[in-house]
Here is the input.
Amino acid sequence: MNESARKPRVAGFALFTLFLAAVLVALGVWQLQRRVAKHQLIAALTERLAAAPVALPPPSQWSTLTPERDEFRRVTFTATYESRLDAMVYSSGSAIRSDISGPGTWAFLPARLPGGDMVAVNAGFVPNTQQDRAPQDRAVAGLITNKPAMLTGYVRFPETASVLMPDAERDKRLWFTRDHLAMSRALGWGTVAPFYIDLERPVPENGIPRPGPLDVHLKDDHLQYAITWFALAGAVLIAFGVWARGRRRA
Here is the structure.
């Protein structure tokens, strides 16, 4: 009786073990696939960041731009900063600017193209540890000259706020994600391009806001993760083998 009851129990545990091992192997394969995709992305971003800037695509093409194909492309264009409410985006540092190491805010403001269309521009970093309006206001005031300027920067797309991200503080015009579309709606910028521009140059005489070149370094831990998942699958199978062998001896 005990022997007959033991066999279904072992068979059921064997099926569960095989299922769990298959899931762990699938996760390992998924990490290897992500590693291939990450290497392709790194190669594409490296190429885009090193390329000479091209003319900003005309508004008729804006709807065709995608993060996969156009993120971090260098562009150049003429625009005039609008005398409208700016927004600041808090940052504790930057993973894509090697010259930014401490907390502060990014200065976002709208700029009008010669044809009348609007583009949001991240004009650069403002040292602003307390997230105060005063340092940002002083920095942005120098940009509002009502004269067109030649701008060079990188095409970026808005971020999606995570559930852990604080909500925007509208009274301070302070955001915690680079969502220029939400800024435009809240601050009355009007219709803006579906992307924004991370400014590379020109740099103001006093250096604030501080634009600059981007240097993207993406984490590539996928091989390590894949090995971990494969090792766990092997450990599950070995543990089952030891357990089953002990059951047969009992």
Q: What stands out?
A: Helices lie at 2-50, 67-70, 133-141, 180-187, 222-249. The first strand starts at residue 54 and ends at 55. The beta strands are 54-55, 74-81, 87-91, 104-112, 118-127, 149-156, 174-175, 192-201.
